[in-house]
């Protein structure tokens, strides 16, 4: 064993193997005892820097310039991102480039290395170990499942073999029975023929005897038996049994034998999540105490929906009111629009181009206010539109009920054409309860989130309509039963839903995990929700007719401060440098 590299041995001289060498060549990265240091320094093919062993690696080992050896690179060209020497500085290739002391960049790189090491050890390695365990569990499950299915297949095969043996035995038995019946008929006729032949043989003998006799009395006594013999017996026509085997169809037999369900392997883009030191992602963090920024008083007796037209203006509508109101944040009614049919709108949304869309349940239509004119986008037959939202691709996602109120589904419309219908889960069961309020919102990961008030659940499906999860309230709570109404998603992928039974807002992450309540803003029967581009929340209170603008997460400037704090946990870079790096992201 090489004792110099044994984990159980002390450090030794790399030249003569003397234990505990007191010196170290920083440039050659060699352990040296006193006896070997002289010969090492006499090797003039390399540059040497011998220091005490405990001070090893304290002196930077500058790289040799590949173009101007043996000159050392003491600078870094920021544009080219390479180390350069003083001779390189005067060359045309680095003219007017920004040059930085290499040791400064070296320290920065070391900080990056330390940061990467920390993340690898703290987060990445444990997470990938966890994923590897999941794969191992899948492999164990695969083996167990395969063993079970193999046993079941063998048992089924043995049962089928027994069934086939029984069928073969019955066929043989039936054949024996038919043979016996045919043979009995043949034997009977054979006995009759044999008896007649015997009588004919006897008659021949008697006739020969009479012909040789001169006894007249015997000749006259003879009675002919020809008439008896000339009547021939009936001819038997025997139709022998045939065996007609069915044509063997392997595919049909395989289907009759049984079937294996198809396997499926799907990838969930957000199946694994990475956490930081405080257990959350470096998103815009939630405020511990959300606060009311402003209150807009509307004219509605029963306010039900609110949607942002911009960060400064909102559209609103209410039950039993055919007017949709356009308010600024000072609470001034800028304009109002009546529905085309004169019925009250059930829900409203704003397209990416700023046009108002509303659903008319009684008129079975989805309508758009464009250039001061209302046009019908969708006219339903047999279904009535209830709630609506605008997708990231500017499609309409509409919740519709059938006429008898027994079915509800989500339909995606693109340019007024139905592109997708979402109604059942993989087992053919309804995803949503029938009828009643179902506000809808699309998340940034393209999940479709529905607040099913009647089912007391938030139902989330992916873009393809496959159920991802159902949220029915936090695992433990002192509040009453969950009663979701309005729903919206923010720029961070969080889901916010109004709980009008408990006068609060539930905040979830995009995977349905409860994060926080907004329950300190004196909400009164919260109904519709929307957020602006800064993630300020607007809550429509049904009972008061008020719209409350609430800050529940850090603003952009607050987010900058938070990011600076968060980034400083992983970097020694000055706050000023970090500030200049972060601020451009926020204009």
**Please, what is the oligomeric state?**
single chain
Report low-confidence residues grouped into runs of 5 or more.
1-7, 277-282, 559-564, 566-587
Largest β-sheet summary: 4 strands, antiparallel
Would you tell me the overall average pLDDT? Answer: 85
**Number of helical elements:** 8
- Secondary-structure content class: alpha+beta
Helix content: 25-40%
CA-to-CA gap between the ends?
Answer: 63 Å
User: What proportion of the residues form beta strands (DSSP E)?
Assistant: 25-35%
Number of strands: 30
Give the strand order, joined by hyphens, for the main sheet.
7-30-29-28
The general outline is: flat
Round the Cα radius of gyration to an integer and report it.
Answer: 47 Å
Give the arrangement of secondary structure elements:
Elements lengths: L22 E3 L4 E3 L1 H8 L8 E3 L22 E3 L4 E3 L1 H4 L9 E3 H111 L3 H6 L4 H5 L19 H8 L28 E12 L5 E6 L4 E6 L4 E6 L4 E6 L8 E4 L5 E5 L4 E6 L2 E7 L3 E8 L5 E7 L5 E7 L2 E6 L15 E5 L5 E5 L4 E5 L5 E5 L12 E6 L5 E5 L4 E5 L5 E5 L7 E6 L4 E6 L4 E8 L2 H13 L6 H8 L5
Antiparallel strand pairs: 1-2, 1-3, 4-5, 4-6, 7-30, 8-9, 9-10, 10-11, 12-13, 13-14, 14-15, 16-17, 17-18, 18-19, 20-21, 21-22, 22-23, 24-25, 25-26, 26-27, 28-29, 29-30
